[in-house]
């Protein structure tokens, strides 16, 4: 059976551990082998994401939007492949088609927000002193993500697009049981204009990788999208080691009708406030 590789730094390496696990269909048919990523694989992905961050965050909003549009075009050109893969993992044809179409729509949606979210969330703040006070959003840096277990494509795409449109880079641990479409999406990313290292996708055991994803010092935030209370507690404890931001997301719907909207972009941004002095001019024209 085909063994799907992981995606790190714009390349498709095998896991350094040499391990893999089997993925089965809903009717218990062997579909493929997937890499069982190790902590070393995660560290390699963090290094790639860190190296890519400065260049990616410096790109213009227009350019980032263009790249997201291009990813949407590449995904649309391979939509039938993704529909077939989702069906093999237990989705009905109707639900698989909806999952793929809404994934394309999400990429276009966040591409449109690329040059608009700053106007929505930034502000000029009223202050009672001779200063202008501006608050703007800035990307945090490297984000680690535990992708949704039951939305293997739409949830993954929604997280990736909302994180990178704001200038961040990311490492995503794909759905453990439904990860085939995640690696196929990595092929879409690799054939688009996205620079290597901006998005890194690994597969494997959440239990094995969770602590590393939560306490790595170069990771600025972790996003968790499942509902296991023990895992949430572990993340909270591990993230305190470097005051990492913890983002908990578990919407009922990741698609167009999601309650998250553009606010998910803000979850992975820091607010920077700048004070700038101004000169007051009196009625007579004299400075005072």
Q: What is shown here, in short?
A:
The chain is 41% helix and 20% strand.
Give a written overview of the molecule.
With 288 residues, the protein is of the alpha/beta class. It has a single domain (44-277), classed as Aldehyde Dehydrogenase, Chain A, domain 1, CATH 3.40.605.10. It is built from ten helices and eleven strands. It has helices at 39-57, 61-77, 79-88, 93-113, 117-121, 154-164, 180-190, 206-215, 229-239, 263-266, and strands spanning 3-4, 20-24, 30-35, 123-125, 131-139, 142-146, 169-173, 199-202, 219-224, 245-248, 269-277. The strands form three sheets. A five-stranded parallel beta sheet has the order 8-7-6-9-10, with helices on both faces. It has a three-stranded mixed beta sheet with strand order 1-3-2, with no helix packed on it. A hairpin with a 5-residue loop joins strand 4 (123-125) and strand 5.
How many domains make up the 3D coordinates?
Answer: 1
Assigned CATH superfamily: Aldehyde Dehydrogenase, Chain A, domain 1
Largest sheet: 5 strands, parallel
Residues in β-strands, percent: 15-25%
CATH C-level label: Alpha Beta
- Please bin the fraction of helical residues: 40-55%
Secondary-structure element pattern, one letter each? EEEHHHHHEEEHEHEHEHEHE
The class by helix and strand makeup works out as alpha/beta
Report the strand count: 11
- Coarse shape: globular
User: Mean pLDDT across all residues, rounded?
Assistant: 93
The number of helical segments is 10
List segments where confidence is low: pLDDT < 50 over at least 5 consecutive residues.
Answer: 283-288
- CATH architecture grouping: 3-Layer(aba) Sandwich
- In which order are the strands of the major sheet placed? 8-7-6-9-10
